[in-house]
Amino acid sequence: MTKRLWDITELYFDPKRQHHYETLFTIGSGYLGTRGAFEESYPGDTPATLIHGIYNHIPGALVPELVNAPNWLPINVTVDGTPFQVILNVDKADFMTPPNGLALGYSRSLHMDTGLLQREVLFRAASGNIVRLTFSRFASLHDQHVMAQRLTVTAVDGSPAITISAGIDTHVTNAGARHWSADRQIKASGSRCAVQVTTEPSGYTVGMAAALISDYPTHGITEGLRASMTISFTLQQEESRIIDKLTAIYTSRDVINPLETAEAKLEEAAVIGYQMLFDAHCHEWEKYWTTADIRIDGDEEIQRAVRFTTYHILIPTPRYDERASVGAKTLSGLGYKGHVFWDTELFLVPPLILSQPHLARNLLMYRYHNLHGARNKAKANGYQGAMFPWESTDTGEETTPQWSDPQPDGTRIRIWTGDSEQHISTDITYAILKYWRWTNDREFLLKHGAEIVLDTAAFWGSRVEYNAEQNRYEVSQQIGPDEYHENIDNSVFVNRMAQWHLQTALDLLEWLRANAPADADRLTTALDLTPKRLTHWRDVIAKMYIPFDREQGIHIQFPGFFEMEYIPVPKYHPRTRSVQEIIGHARTIQSQVIKQADVVMMMALLGEDLSVPAGLDVRQVMINNWNTYFPRTDHGSSLSPAMHAWVAARLHLNDEAYEMLHHAAHIDLQDNKGNVRDGIHAAACGGVWQAIIFGFCGLHIDANGELALDPHLPAHWREVNFNVYYRGEQRTFSVKNSV
Amino acid sequence: MTKRLWDITELYFDPKRQHHYETLFTIGSGYLGTRGAFEESYPGDTPATLIHGIYNHIPGALVPELVNAPNWLPINVTVDGTPFQVILNVDKADFMTPPNGLALGYSRSLHMDTGLLQREVLFRAASGNIVRLTFSRFASLHDQHVMAQRLTVTAVDGSPAITISAGIDTHVTNAGARHWSADRQIKASGSRCAVQVTTEPSGYTVGMAAALISDYPTHGITEGLRASMTISFTLQQEESRIIDKLTAIYTSRDVINPLETAEAKLEEAAVIGYQMLFDAHCHEWEKYWTTADIRIDGDEEIQRAVRFTTYHILIPTPRYDERASVGAKTLSGLGYKGHVFWDTELFLVPPLILSQPHLARNLLMYRYHNLHGARNKAKANGYQGAMFPWESTDTGEETTPQWSDPQPDGTRIRIWTGDSEQHISTDITYAILKYWRWTNDREFLLKHGAEIVLDTAAFWGSRVEYNAEQNRYEVSQQIGPDEYHENIDNSVFVNRMAQWHLQTALDLLEWLRANAPADADRLTTALDLTPKRLTHWRDVIAKMYIPFDREQGIHIQFPGFFEMEYIPVPKYHPRTRSVQEIIGHARTIQSQVIKQADVVMMMALLGEDLSVPAGLDVRQVMINNWNTYFPRTDHGSSLSPAMHAWVAARLHLNDEAYEMLHHAAHIDLQDNKGNVRDGIHAAACGGVWQAIIFGFCGLHIDANGELALDPHLPAHWREVNFNVYYRGEQRTFSVKNSV
């Protein structure tokens, strides 16, 4: 594999795509993420640094949001007095000495192998002198409190006078919302500057300290809300200078004195220096890729795209923090306000279980530490056990907004997901079980995982409704993955997954009794798992209503689904919008158009454990289900295509599987949905990894507890190679195409 | 190899890139080329159909140009009265019923395997009804007088009333210049329409006839300068209708009655029908690709790009016409006005010699038929023999403009290439010799080729200047491939190639005397090849001044070159402009910055026949030359990178070779130079093919007259497979990477 498939390169800067590339070129360390905005800024840019756990809820806002931290990127350069900017065009008459300068060349690459973002610009100042500016930046994976930047300035033509002003800017908002209190420390002296800011009202403090490292006298100044350090020098023609900027960061989540700690860390980093920081950083990246990289031979487009999606799984995931999790847009944009959804457990966690199990554990621990929020939610809604919030932040409380932002006509739309998308608790349980089966991490299961599994089972035990007339259990008012259909009764996805959840809980308890009786006793007592309650669970499992059409041999998404208007989705080919947009919201919800197929998601999760009525062949039902639901699904959710790719691959539907995989892998790169400016589609990234490993390669744990493959690669793929962890050991797989 | 590497797809329509894609998506048949403008037009579009040989020189213009023919593309559709257009955005308030309609989806692909351009648009009319429109078009490779279009309209939502108006538009100009006389025939009746137009003053007539083929009553009408045929119908929901439009075309270069012949051909095509026309067309394309396709395993980006460049070699090359040749911008744009340069013989002809030798022959015959123009030019300049024009059109006369278009300050710049770029005659001879060596086409050589070789040698015999003081022959006032340096004396490229040319002529004459004495006698008499003249040639060969620096072991581009300002080109990395643009024209011409290295071109053409002074190792001189000239070359010419790739591959400079190949292969696809709107860079296309086959694969005729390989593939390439013709037989090569 050559280096060229490790880079994403922007050959020309197009201001219209500025926000798209800011998102794509986000760097991160598992501690924070920083969008790929320019050091010198550009009109309309949206720089953002998002730090795990730093949420704030300002008065008047519906919900809390992850706070945009002070901007540590600024490096402003002037060349003979002309401020450097990526100016692309000038009047012909001004061509040789454009008054605001001119970029004569531009290239920017994200090196995914090392998480390094690099930009080279050839810039001619108004004076006519030409410089080359090379900017590099990385957020250290070796020391997550350190970020490093390097600027190399080369005098290409002439002897330009250069000034460089670099610093930290606390004048930042979340698209206008101000989270930082007016009480700030902003200081600068010599080659150092530092800031400390505090969210209001949540009271998180962030301290940042930066150093400008050069051979020149450096002047620290503060101006308004910005601290900076300035140097000036003149270059001889062809002379080159390297200027490094290092930034250290701590928050009150890490230490009691973030500013002082950041300052101390900065001095430590300054002694180590850019190059050694980078070497240590690369070493960590190498370890990441050893097990995260899927090497695909025979499809360079997918190869590069899969590295991109994997990169965006790795950079937001906390390495040393069990109390933060990854939001639906990672740390790469303000979309969904940094809230954590099921995207984490069902899309991001599985790739991490196999490739970086310690990171998967961190994410699962976030849920453990927030069990109180889930218990509060259950209690507030009149249920028992733990009912996790649909959207979660630092508090573990439900933080789904109840209302949308105002529509063009001024009205707001009621958002029901926080009320009704209750499958989140089962999604978390599913991830815990997957983690347990793949890692054999007994300590986690006994101390943390089992409690979540059992207490969320207790929620379902209290949540289900007994229909005496039918002698069956039902669940009303739910939203499944297909969010076009809200507050429906007896979602097959919800009912079947709740049934699976209860059975899993019973099995687990039995296993605990046999293998860890003390923990079984402790949990039985603490969670009040009385024999009566367990008997009830067994009754629910036996009598859960699973909507099924025997005649067609298919699962029914929910009773009444097929009575609605049938609109075959493929007829809208080629479309760049969802069918919901095309036909309108009102008609969509009264139709069989599906955002993401519940039944397909269920097949992805359960495979042949779907449970079908006696006498039916499960594979045939799966095919029937696919044939029924695929043509009804518009993939209005970015979560959808990868799951469909996975299931199609399992069903040997090679064309559909590849089409869906290609779609999923390019959601961010091609900005298919036009909203990448708001952040990476994390679930799509995680879904792609799963589609390839679990779907195309068919990696699974077999009946004997051994890893096994069942590959169905696209016809033009030659080979897929990857390493995964299984029960603490690294295992290597090479899947050759048998087609 | 999968189909996906045969397509170039535009996923989103970006009006800013409209002209770029019009050029990329040109279709052609070797008879005409038609840019990829939309059937229904789009604001600012630049549709053009260019037919070989139809030049016109209007009063006031500096030179003749290839004339933009009547537009045969128009198909205008209205849906419930809303004119179909690719409208991408509407106000939010209008979203459901936009007054001008809205494109809900768009996709356009050029299928390079079959030369089919296809576009699908999902369109919602103001009425709310939605249709899918699928447009296909091809210029028949089986019958070059026929073009076919197919429109499939599908009622996706609602029962829309459709009107389709299709026709031929004679209201066309060359960017404002009017070439068609006011005297036109424009007629329409029922499902047929036709036009006949005549260039003024050149007097070429073009006749075009079109049929609209559907099940509906069709009304022919003429409106102004356009003839069209209209149908109306209403579709039921989900109903689909196929409407075909066929167009036939003849010119007065083909027949005496173009309009009538076109009408007759149209009826013939209408009987055959779209599908059978397409099948026959595909069959011809299959034959083309058998020998034109280079199959690269291990580099999908280059694979697709090379198919693209090869496609654009194939579509403009005349199949049945010896009196037209391919211009520098092919038939894909108005750039260089359709004039024929050395690009044809040194860049396009070699790939055709190996892959479609009959097409190479057509292009060489164009020069034979225009020998009179070359003789006129020689005579007018006081020389003997044949001196081919730098820019050639239908007349064979010199048609290089002497002056540029007006500059911003109103002045014009003198263009010297028509006066001084005299190597064109040798370039043609080089192509003839290559054709002869690879095809063994004795008939061509004896009847046509030899006469060109010998008479252009006669030109050089009269052109060289004897310097008595130095006892050597010199050539003054030349321009080599490096056009930054004009009117220089003793260009090493010109002098060495003229020397090679004279030697080649002598060798050929000797061979003719031995193998075809009657032809030798005929040519000796006709061209006045007296013993005295031949003795003079020998003297010139022996005493030609080849500027060489013995100390450095390098060829000197021209004496004085190294006394000019030295500007290392790599220092301007990364640049998206030529160094000439960056530092200005005045400074460039006084510097060592090279547009395209003469010495590298010479190494491409002559390889180890470079001729170096006794005692020097030719390989070492080649390396020295490369090291000298490569860092001075800014590739301001699109011809440059491929030639550098070729030579670098021969010198085993793998990184430079690949970098140059990648650059060359993407000049059009990525629009590196920002001028693809004016047409395809034909020479770059032909250069890419040569760089791979002659450079990377090292295919050559060895000392025994056998084909041999000397491969140096980029490290990440696995294998290259191709078929070529050698002396009438098809030969298959598989080059595996030995790295």
Describe this structure in words.
2 copies of one chain form a homodimer. With 739 residues, the first copy, chain A, is α+β, with helices and mostly antiparallel strands. Chain A has a domain of 218 residues: Glycoside hydrolase, family 65, N-terminal domain (Beta-galactosidase, Chain A, domain 5, Distorted Sandwich). Helix content of chain A is 34%, strand content 21%. In chain A, the strands form 7 sheets. In chain A, strands 1-8-9-10-11-18-15-14-13 form a 9-stranded antiparallel β-sheet. In chain A, strands 7-6-12-17-16 form a 5-stranded antiparallel β-sheet, with no helix packed on it. In chain A, strands 2-3-4-5 form a 4-stranded antiparallel β-sheet, with no helix packed on it. In chain A, helix 5 packs across helix 20, helix 11 packs antiparallel against helix 13 and helix 18 runs parallel beside helix 20. The first copy, chain A, is globular, with a radius of gyration of 27 Å. Chain A starts with 6 loop residues before the first strand and ends with a strand. The mean pLDDT of chain A is 96. At the A-B interface, strand 8, strand 9, strand 11 and helix 14 of A face strand 8, strand 9, strand 11 and helix 13 of B.
How far apart the termini of chain A lie comes to 22 Å
Strand content of chain A: 15-25%
Oligomer: homodimer
Largest interface: A-B, 40 and 40 residues
DSSP helix fraction of chain A: 25-40%
The shape of chain A, in one word, is globular
Any idea of the CATH class of the domain at 3-166 and 235-288 in chain A? Mainly Beta
SS class of chain A? alpha+beta
For CATH, the homologous superfamily of the domain at 3-166 and 235-288 in chain A is named as Glycoside hydrolase, family 65, N-terminal domain
Main-sheet strand order of chain A equals 1-8-9-10-11-18-15-14-13
CATH topology description of the domain at 3-166 and 235-288 in chain A:
Beta-galactosidase, Chain A, domain 5
